[in-house]
Structure formats: structure tokens, C-alpha cells
Amino acid sequence: LGKYGDGNSYCSSSRINELNWVRTITFQELVSYYRGLIAIRRRFSALTDETGKAAGTIRFHMLTDQVIAYTIQSSLAGAEDTASKEQHELVLIFNAGNKGMEVDLCQSEALLSKEWEVLAAETHAGLSSLYTVQGHRFYVFPRGVLIAVSNHRKD
After folding, report:
1. Using CA atoms, how far apart are residues 109 and 145, in angstroms rounded to an integer?
2. Region at 126 (left for phi over 0; alpha for psi -120 to 50; beta for the rest)
3. DSSP character string of the chain
4. pLDDT tens-digit profile of 57-85?
5. CB-CB contact of 143 with 98 (8 Å)
6. In whole angstroms, how far apart are CA 84 and each of 42, 46, 51, 73?
């Protein structure tokens, strides 16, 4: 129903909308996950593109009524040198279902031989690789998100 019974707290008082910082200790794992997602978003320019240029590189993959994926081309945010301007391909998969699912993105020839560094899966996210996937099959946890990148270096 919302915060303290308020279904739309947009115009409500600070008491309703204030952050309870003690909860960041209780939910430390979730806070860390969000920090990791924010770091990924900041690292790859396509995820913060205000020009719409990156939108032209998006390829959607409707997999089921509860799983959607897309790939998008991106360079590193703030890249100045040629090596950092190298294009990376990101795979983002969203599973709204209650069961984990192996996702096969084989309809894209470009994905078949790539090596992917998984940056977000289950309850972990960040710029360090969690594990590597070769090819076009990814496992996505129930009600989960998977983010992977090709040609990734943490530098």
C-alpha cells in the first residue's frame, strides 16, 4: 500500500520519505548490490547516454513472457584514450519468474564465440568479474538480473 499507508508519497512530508540509515546496516548486502549496479552503470557509457546514440545499438531478445534480454554496444564512460574507447558488448537479462532459467541467445551469431565476464548475478554486482561464460548460454536466477560484458578490463 505504500509508506505508512500512503500509496503516493511524492508530495508527503519528510517524515514519510526520509531514509532510515540504520536499515543500511540491516540490509548491507542489498546496499552493496545497488552500489555495484551503480558502478556498472557509471562505467559503461551506453547505460548513461543522454544523446540516444546508444539506443541505436540495442538488440532485444524476447525469450518468454517473464524473461527479456538485450544487448547494447558501449565504450567505457569518460574514455579518452583509444584503448578505453574500444567497444564492449553488454548483455542484460531480466528474469521476473520464480524459477531460475538458462537463457540461450543463439539467435545472434555475434554472441556465439564471445567470452563474457559476468558483472552482476544473483546478489552480487560490481566491476570485478564474478565468473566467465563462453558463448551464448547464461543462467539467470529467479527474479534476477544478469549483466555480462565482452572485452572487459577492470582498469
Report:
1. 23
2. left
3. --BTTBS-GGGS-HHHH---TTHHHHTHHHHHHHHHHHHHHHHBGGGG-SSSTGGGG-EEEE-SSSEEEEEEEE-BTT--STTTT--EEEEEEEE-SSS-EEEE-TT-GGGTT-EEEEEEETTEESSS-SEEEESSEEEE-TT-EEEEEES----
4. 888 887 789 999 998 989 888 766 555 56
5. yes
6. 14, 14, 20, 13
